[in-house]
């Protein structure tokens, strides 16, 4: 009889321990309620559900390695969300937008952070909305929408702003569109930044603010960082900016591969974007070293306001940089290249590129119509088919499917 009682007591204790270990879900409707829920789940992890409404300020501090999920229950807007020295946090299904001022989701000393299914916008206000990664390690930003991040703000606005403390950040499968007077992704990072599978459309001038503020609209502009990978993105148009992808100063080991750059947009009839990629700005103290621009379909190219004709713009200062540190340009469809200087004269290698209009750096290089369909895909008779340098070609194309043994020039492999 005694043994049976002891056995039943042990089973009951095990059951209660199992129940205690099960992640909890707490539903809150105020900032104070959120703070109390975060304290309760600090060690155990679990889920905090935010009821619909506006939250001026939320914060998460140091906590255990057990994952904490914060999700919105529809119609949730957060003005400021600070992740300070926290870890293993997942935030999704809510809006970062102005409540009492500028809105931001800020990471400061955070690690293992998953941000997904967010909407970041400040439309209809004079404020900004952004994600700011001041210092963090292991951050994913995915399946989110960034738009109108500061159309009427008097200060420079960026949808995602990076600082040198940002390491191992992946920006994947997001939509960036219709931002007036801002960059979609901007700043400096520490190491290992991946920008993949995103769509960037319409970085546009703002109005009724200073001309200097409103003339700077790039899709992606980065000034520093080690090991950047930009792959399988769609780059749409910008106006009154420098380029669709602007890399300068000490952005080293940048690989730009399998991207599609387009120079027109049906929502902006009659306008043509001018430059797709800039490597090194005029007057920069330093240039990006070891860059590779490989297997992109670059359909952007129009005369720049200073007269430059080219889809790619490289600083003439590369002429004084050691050869092995200079950019490699290979296997690209290039809409426009008006002269040998400076791209041809300063590249480490210019291999197997097809130029649509202008000149080719290689004496026997092809210039002319590459026979693309309306989506930029090569047709069976295209000069692109089987013409890429196989040693530099990536194993997959823009769609993620494997390339042939004799790969094609451009982002797309013929199917």
Show the helix and strand layout:
Blueprint: H1 2-21, E1 24-28, H2 31-40, E2 46-50, E3 53-60, E4 68-72, E5 76-84, E6 87-96, E7 103-121, E8 129-142, E9 145-147, E10 157-172, E11 175-180, E12 182-196, E13 199-204, H3 211-214, E14 220-231, E15 234-235, E16 245-257, E17 260-261, E18 277-279, E19 292-294, E20 297-298, E21 312-314, E22 328-330, E23 333-337, H4 343-346, E24 349-351, E25 354-358
Please explain how this structure is put together.
It is a single chain. With 415 residues, the protein is mainly beta. The chain has a domain at 24-217. The chain is 9% helix and 43% strand. The protein contains 4 helices and 25 strands. It has a 25-stranded parallel beta sheet that branches. The termini are far apart. Mean pLDDT is 93; it is low at 1-20.
- The portion of residues assigned to helices is under 10%
Spans where pLDDT lies below 50 across 5 or more residues: 1-20
- Could you say which overall geometry the principal axes of the C-alpha atoms support? elongated
Total strand segments: 25
* Terminal CA distance: 75 Å
Secondary-structure class: mainly beta
Evaluate the radius of gyration: 25 Å
The profile of the biggest β sheet is: 25 strands, parallel
* Chain-averaged pLDDT: 93
Instruction: Name the beta content range.
Output: 35-45%
Write down the secondary-structure element order.
Answer: HEHEEEEEEEEEEEEHEEEEEEEEEEHEE
């Amino acid at each position: 009889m005694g043994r049976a009682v002891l056995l039943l007591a042990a089973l009951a204790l095990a059951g209660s321990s199992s129940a205690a270990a099960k992640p909890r879900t707490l539903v809150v409707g105020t900032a104070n309620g959120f703070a109390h829920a975060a304290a309760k789940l600090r060690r155990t992890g679990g889920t905090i559900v935010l009821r619909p409404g506006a939250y001026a300020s939320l914060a998460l501090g140091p906590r255990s390695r057990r994952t904490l999920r914060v999700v919105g229950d529809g119609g949730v807007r957060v003005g400021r969300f600070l992740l300070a020295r926290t870890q293993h946090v997942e935030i999704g299904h809510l809006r970062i937008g102005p409540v009492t001022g500028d809105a931001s989701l800020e990471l400061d000393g955070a690690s293992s952070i998953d941000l997904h299914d967010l909407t970041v916008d400040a439309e209809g206000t004079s404020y900004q909305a952004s994600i700011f990664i001041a210092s963090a390690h292991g951050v994913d930003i995915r399946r989110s929408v960034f738009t109108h991040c500061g159309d009427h703000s008097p200060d420079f606005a960026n949808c995602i702003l990076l600082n040198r403390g940002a390491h191992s950040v992946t920006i994947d499968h997001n939509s960036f569109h219709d931002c007036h007077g801002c960059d979609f992704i901007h700043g400096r990072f520490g190491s290992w930044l991946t920008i993949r599978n995103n769509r960037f459309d319409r970085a546009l001038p703002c109005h009724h603010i200073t001309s200097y503020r409103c003339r700077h609209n790039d899709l992606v502009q980065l000034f520093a960082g080690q090991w950047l990978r930009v792959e399988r993105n769609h780059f749409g148009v910008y106006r009154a900016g420098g380029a669709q992808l602007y890399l300068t100063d000490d952005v080293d080991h940048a690989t730009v591969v399998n991207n599609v750059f387009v120079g027109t947009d049906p929502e902006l009839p009659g306008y043509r974007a001018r430059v797709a990629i800039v490597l090194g700005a005029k007057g920069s103290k330093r240039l990006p070293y070891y860059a590779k621009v490989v297997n992109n379909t670059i359909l952007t190219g129009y005369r720049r306001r200073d007269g430059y004709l080219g889809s790619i713009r490289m600083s003439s200062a590369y002429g004084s940089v050691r050869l092995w540190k200079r950019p490699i340009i290979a296997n690209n469809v290039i809409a426009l290249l008006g002269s040998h200087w400076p791209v041809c004269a300063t590249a480490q290698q210019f291999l197997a590129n097809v130029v649509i209009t202008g000149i080719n750096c290689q004496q026997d290089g092809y210039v002319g119509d590459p026979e693309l369909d309306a989506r930029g895909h090569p047709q069976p008779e295209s000069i692109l088919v089987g013409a890429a340098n196989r040693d530099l070609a990536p194993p997959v194309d823009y769609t993620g499917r494997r390339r042939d043994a004799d790969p094609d020039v451009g982002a797309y492999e013929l199917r």
